[in-house]
Amino acid sequence: MYAPNSLIQPVERTISLEIVHPEVQRCFLRCFNDGYKNSNLRPAAGDWVKALRFAVNELTICGKVDSHYYSRTYGECYWCDRSTKLGIDIFPGFARPKQQSAFVESTSKGIAIMMEHLSPGKGGRHRQTISYGKSPNLSLSARETLTQEVWDVRSIYLRQGLYNREIRKSLQGLINLNRLTWQGIFDKVG
Ligand SMILES: [Zn+2]
């Protein structure tokens, strides 16, 4: 997109095309390079939707700052890198405390809540959840299951006096990421 002899050149604060999902990168290149003169070569709205669906599936939440989302295809949190290099975080959030974390992990197959271990050798807090070691209750809707799991995790942290703003935001992030990834599935029925 930046021609070598162009007057417009990327600078340090320019957000690189590399950070977005490869399908979205392809759309940008087709739109602004191939389709620069020939509009027929530009991706159609449907192509963008498809690319964005792939991209949303690969989004994950940063382990350090709760308002950072990045593509796992890029491999690391660009927003952390950028704030270290430039001293400005354009998506400022709350730094996650190391000891009291319940952060959200997304894979291409599913989304999991990561709960830290109580102390070495004792096993993680996930062992205290109602669903630990049990097969899923298939009579519940996706929405009910998510609500139940979030409620369960919240009660564990409440019981231990560790429930705070960070954990509340993490759980909210978990709900949002699930809704974003599995569109329609978590909507209220009826
Ligand atoms: Zn980050």
Question: Can you describe this structure in just a few lines?
Answer:
The chain has helices spanning 22-34, 45-57, 78-86, 142-159, 165-181; strands spanning 59-61, 69-71, 102-106, 111-115. With 190 residues, it is mainly α.
Give a quick set of tags describing it.
190 residues; 2 domains; 37% helix; binds zinc ion
Name the beta content range: 5-15%
Number of domains: 2
Using only C-alpha atoms, the radius of gyration works out to: 20 Å
Q: Low-confidence runs (pLDDT<50, min 5 residues)?
A: none
Q: Describe the largest sheet.
A: 2 strands, antiparallel
- Mean pLDDT across residues: 82
Number of continuous helical runs:
5
Distance between the termini: 47 Å
Helix/strand/pairing class, anyone? mainly alpha
Number-wise, the strands total 4
* Ions, cofactors and other bound molecules: zinc ion
Envelope shape: flat
Helix content: 25-40%
State the strand order across the main sheet: 1-2
**How do the SSEs run, as a string of H and E?**
HHEEHEEHH
How would the blueprint of this fold be written?
Blueprint: H1 22-34, H2 45-57, E1 59-61, E2 69-71, H3 78-86, E3 102-106, E4 111-115, H4 142-159, H5 165-181
Antiparallel strand pairs: 1-2, 3-4
Helix pairs in contact: 1-2, 4-5
Bound molecules: zinc ion (ZN).
Describe the structure.
With 190 residues, the chain is mainly α. It has two domains: 1-95, no CATH class; 97-190, no CATH class. Helix content is 37%, strand content 8%. It has helices at 22-34, 45-57, 78-86, 142-159, 165-181, and strands spanning 59-61, 69-71, 102-106, 111-115. It has a two-stranded antiparallel ribbon with strand order 1-2. The protein has a two-stranded antiparallel sheet with strand order 3-4. Helix 4 (142-159) runs antiparallel to helix 5 (165-181). The site of zinc ion (ZN) has 7 residues, from helix 3.
